[in-house]
Write a structure and sequence with these properties.
The structure holds two protein chains of two kinds.
Chain A (H helix, E strand, L loop, with lengths): L2 H13 L6 H12 L3 E12 L2 E12 L3 E8 L7 E5 L2 E6 L4 E5 L15 H5 L4 H4 E11 L2 E10 L8 E7 L5 E7 L5 E13 L2 E11 L6 E11 L10 H4 L2
Antiparallel strand pairs in A: 1-2, 1-13, 2-3, 3-4, 4-5, 5-6, 7-8, 8-9, 9-10, 10-11, 11-12, 12-13
Chain B lengths: L1 H10 L1 H41 L2 E5 H5 L13 H11 L3 E16 L5 E12 L8 H4 L2 H4 E4 L7 E5 H7 L6 E7 L5 E12 L4 H4 L2 E5 H8 L7 E6 L6 H15 L8 E5 L4 H39 L1 H9 L4 H37 L1 E2 L14 E2 L12 H16 L7 H9 L1
Parallel strand pairs in B: 3-8, 5-7
Antiparallel strand pairs in B: 1-9, 1-10, 2-3, 2-6, 2-9, 4-7, 5-8, 6-7, 11-12
Classes of the chains: A alpha+beta, B alpha+beta.
Amino acid sequence: MKKIPILILIIIAFSGKSQPSADEILDRVDKNMSSENRIFESSMTIHGKRGNRTMTSRTYSVGDKQSFTEYLSPAREQGTKMLKLENQLWIYSPSTDRTIQISGHMLRQSVMGSDLSYEDMMEDRKLTDVYTAVVVGEETVDERNTYVLKLTAKVEDVAYFTRKVWIDTERYIPLKEELFAKSGQLLKRTMLSGVEKIEGRWFPTKMVFKDMLKQGEGTEFEITSVKFNQKIPEHIFSKAALKK
Amino acid sequence: MIKFLIKGLFRDKSRSRLPIIVVSIGVMLTVLMNAYVRGFMGDTIEVNSKFTNGHLKVMSRAYAEEANQIPNDLALTEVSSLLTELRAEYPEVEWAPRIQFGGLVDVPDVNGETRSQGPAIGMGVDLLSENSKEIERLNLTNSIVRGSMIAKQGEVLLSEEFSQKLGINPGEVVTLIGSSMFGSMTMYNFTVSGTVRFGAEVIDRGAIITDIEDARLALDMNDAASEILGFLKTDFYDDERVVKLVTEMNEKYADSSDEFAPVFKSLSQQGAMGQYVALVNVWSIYIPMVFVFAMSLVLWNAGLLGGLRRYGEVGIRIAMGEEKGHVYRTMIYESIFIGIAGSIFGTAFGLFFAWLIQTYGIDISGMMEGASMMLPSVIRARITPADFYIGFFPGLMSTVIGTMLSGVGIYKRQTARLFKELES
């Protein structure tokens, strides 16, 4: 008989730490990952079949709708700029002095030979607007407890029909993501690490993207410096800025 | 007796001239058709070999597995040293590095914005090296419709149809948007030096041809090539010889541990062309056989008629006491002389006309509009060793067999009725 109150106490204790809903989890992730604007410098190392290539870039972004990236190195890519405004993307090549809009099937091309496509870069809708999310369990990733969320598309025009996301239960940062086609085939896998507290928010600074249909060891993306909520001149997000 | 028979044939023109002319014409047609059929089929192989397959092709092992996708990320690297080795070791083969690529050709307006755009199939070819035979091999000079040949780096040839679709003229600048060897998007400006038409819709739809060094710069393929094509210096594809060479080369260069090691493939080992080569091998036996058979029937008939025409002469000879067997044998001997003479003349004329078609060709470019297959616009005959003896089958054998059959009648003639027959 003495065991019953103890059992009730245990149940009450655990029920106090109830699991948040999938949408709540995604909202908290958004708070960490999104910002009014940000400026960051990054390096991208592509581990191809024939060796590694590293390129550095500086990116200015406002929300998810506007971003401007300038490649700083290597010499061949230096001065290449990309401008994203809403659902339009332009790329400027200094060697040809041409600005080309990337659209249609070109969006499926790889960005600088990496495991990321332009289409991946263009995805700016909130996950909760595009997917129906459910928590399907809890797992450990890199010795961190995570919620496993399964996201299924509720609209037609998505690049990936389902996603599986592993979200740190304490810091609300995605640590792993798998993207699937409608057929169920795994298309891409992302591993996130190097989580740091920057300006009061948790933020992953290292990401490894792997296009599962492509040979090679994947693409490492590292944010070398990031500043949130900076004053970014409006003219940066214009086509004229590409040629400057 | 042989001397006597030949003298008889020479003196009696009705026994020699017409039969020899008939046999000669038949043999000439047989030889000519055989050379023509082989030439046409061989030319189709040659056209494809010059543009895409080579007589043999060198690729990286990884590239060869996905060759139809043109995976330039798997292209051959350090090509200049590989070429030096190949040129030293196999001087009987001419080597031509090529870069195949796909991409978009974008035409800017005055503000640098896209005016028109279209998908292109590109080819980087060695056009500016001093000793390169690529211009001649691809017949580029004769294919130019507007403008001129590429004379310096940074220039490009567009197919005429494609240039009209894009609304571009020689002298204007286009941007190639492609994919580098490392998978990143590349842009490269070219000046259109001229437009070309090859007569094959497959490539005329959207071809872009540039010097291989420009293709290397555009696609970040330093000292690389999608493939190296090999051409026998004899100019004609010889499957047996090439397969032997390729086997030897693969044994020498094969490195199972390196997926980028060069792998050699003969034209017959390359996808659809392999099937075509096999088909050509079968056709080049059956088509001349059918023709030889048809000509045999004609000449056999001529032999029969020749025998029957001499019905009266044979009757007189038997009436004069000549043995039937002797008459029969002399007629066969005569037909052998006729057959040999006709075959020699026919073969000589057939070879002469075949040589003319082999050298000058027959231009069928007017019939090629809308063709979706890469076919030659000039058909050429091809003289092979078989052409020197193939005419003797219908020329000699059919004439002799015809005479033998018609001559059987000699044995059925009755001496008692001979004079009666002769009177009538």
